[in-house]
Amino acid sequence: MTPSAIVTGGAGFIGSHVVDALIGEGYAVTVIDDLSSGDALRVAKEADLRELDIVDLRALETVFSEVQPRAIFHLAAQASVVASVENPGRDCEVNVQGTLNVVQAAGKCGALVVFTSTGGALYGDDAPMPTREDRIPAPLSPYGASKWAAEAYVKTWSLSSGIPHAVCRLGNVYGPRQSPHGEAGVVSIFTHHLHTGQTPTLYGHGSPTRDYVYVADVVNALLAASGRSGTYNVATGVETEVATVWSELSNVAGKRIEPELADLRPGELKHSRLDVSLAERELGWRAEVPIAEGLRLTYEALVAEFERG
Ligand SMILES: NC(=O)c1ccc[n+]([C@@H]2O[C@H](COP(=O)([O-])OP(=O)(O)OC[C@H]3O[C@@H](n4cnc5c(N)ncnc54)[C@H](O)[C@@H]3O)[C@@H](O)[C@H]2O)c1
């Protein structure tokens, strides 16, 4: 019998790559997405897209009981730090209540859940680097707080049901299909600026560092985490300055544009680098794509996407 999986947020940047990988592994895939930041065109035609809000428990349960999934990959989220500062109530509703709804609906069909939390927005600025998973979170934004609360529900439901659910705390993910129109996702934003000849703004004057991880590596980690009950950082363990990302992409593009410099925005971290040794030990996973190669692959793919319109 064909195994089935549900991907919430499967019309989003990372979720759409998870959908493709699961189809490649022989799964029948159902996508749950309200298309608030996602795009139906990103969803593989073999997948069954259901447009609904994860805050609606009854609608969620109807789809889960129909599909009877073996595995859930829960990526649907209000994923913007800036939006979470502007509207913390909606951030909480989607990220906390929505996640509780997903684990409740999953419990009724005995499905394994993998939840995508954040490694970048959770640990705060005072955490030692590289930051391990056992560091007590100190989020600077409502988004970090809602992801932490959601993690607690995922873990509690796993403990009480005996079904292993995993939490993956992602670094700064980049790659093809990332939208350049949000406030995050500098690789995509910078690529768009280079392609259209616009001047970018480097917040924090270009000096903040992030642990950038290529989307294909993230997908491999999420698949490896299904059926595990741990909390794993999913990143590279390498930090790169925002200014370096800009200059490397400029080299790939063969263009020179002088960026504008500005202060960090509210809720944004100065530095982030995650310890990835637990995922290496327990999942047998490590990121394979070095940043220089990932930036080149992403630049080429995104420019082709922009030109297709
Ligand atoms: N991109 C990153 O660097 C990064 C880093 C850490 C964690 N994450 C997490 O990974 C996941 C995917 O992120 P992404 O970058 O692909 O973001 P994205 O915005 O591209 O994808 C999120 C998807 O969820 C959908 N969605 C939002 N609210 C919904 C709701 N109420 N009901 C149903 N669907 C809803 C959106 O339409 C979208 O398709 C998110 O949980 C995010 O918090 C991302």
Description:
- There is one protein chain.
- The protein is α/β, with parallel strands linked by helices and 309 residues long.
- The chain folds into 2 domains: 4-172 and 212-236, Rossmann fold, CATH 3.40.50; 175-210 and 238-273 and 289-308, UDP-galactose 4-epimerase, domain 1.
- Helices cover 42% and strands 17% of the residues.
- It has 10 helices and 13 strands.
- The strands form 4 sheets. A 7-stranded parallel β-sheet has the order 3-2-1-4-5-6-11, with helices on both faces.
- Helix 1 (13-24) links the parallel strand 1 and strand 2 (28-33).
- Helix 1 (13-24) crosses helix 7 and helix 6 packs across helix 10 (291-308).
- The model has no long low-confidence stretch (mean pLDDT 96).
- Bound molecules: nicotinamide-adenine-dinucleotide (NAD).
- Nicotinamide-adenine-dinucleotide is lined by residues 9, 11-15, 33-38, 53-55, 75-79, 94, 98, 116, 118, 120, 170, 172-173.
